[in-house]
Amino acid sequence: MSLKFANKKKLALYVFLACISACGNVVIAYVTKIMLNSAQYHRGSLKQLILIAALGAVSLIIIMFLNFAYRYLRSDITRDINLNLKEKTITYLIAQQNDSQKDGLNLMTNDLKQIESLKITNELMIISEIAAFAISIFVGLINSWLLTIIFVIATIIPGFIQKFFIKDIQNKSAIWEKQNAEYTQATVDAINGSKTAMLYDAQVPVISYVIKQAKQMENALRSLNYTQGAISTLIITIADIFSFIIPFLVGAILSPSNGAKWFWKNNFTPTFSRSIKANKWFYYN
User: Fold this and answer.
1) Which pTM was predicted?
2) What is the average per-residue pLDDT within 124-152?
């Protein structure tokens, strides 16, 4: 874990600022909720609405300035880790006393940059995403624990569904890799044997063979791209259904203003009489 090379005080401050940054979405959601409720139920005066909007805007501006510090600290932590890794790496290379500098130069310039891109940045992003997720869940549980649980379960379902298609993508990817290798080898053979092909007047068969391998490789790539795109479309559709439509449907059913009492009494009483007792207690208390 690359973050072990970071300054612990800076890392702790980064976690705190990441939590503050995640509160921006909560502020937007809360202000939007108040505005929609006011418009739907005609609650509050114009002065109160303007005050709520002003408080929301001021909160977002404060979070924005804290986000400046959050972004700077993120870059500063990345810089500190990079310097630490470079110092350790150059110390090791000098201690090896190797006459060949090619590998060492590649390590110092390319490999360490890959570590920054693929490891340091991602680990810092994971901290931010965990903070945003935790705060969102916490606020959601406070507002409506039932809908929050339903939403969490519903958003997990597309992830499980995606696992059923991983094997298909892996198989298509393996086929493309095989065809790509054959096409590459055919191209190398054709170029290396170009003089021989000219000598025996066999340019047409050689070109036809390379084009044949190219077609097979491109067909495999098309199949792979289509499979990935189709599965992505399917997963996005399922995610939209389970993440938005179903939670909003449940929220609408559970909302007393939308006739939830009537809904439960007239639709579920014949078959779910025991459940109705619990639901009546929920709605009337």
Assistant:
1) 0.61
2) 83
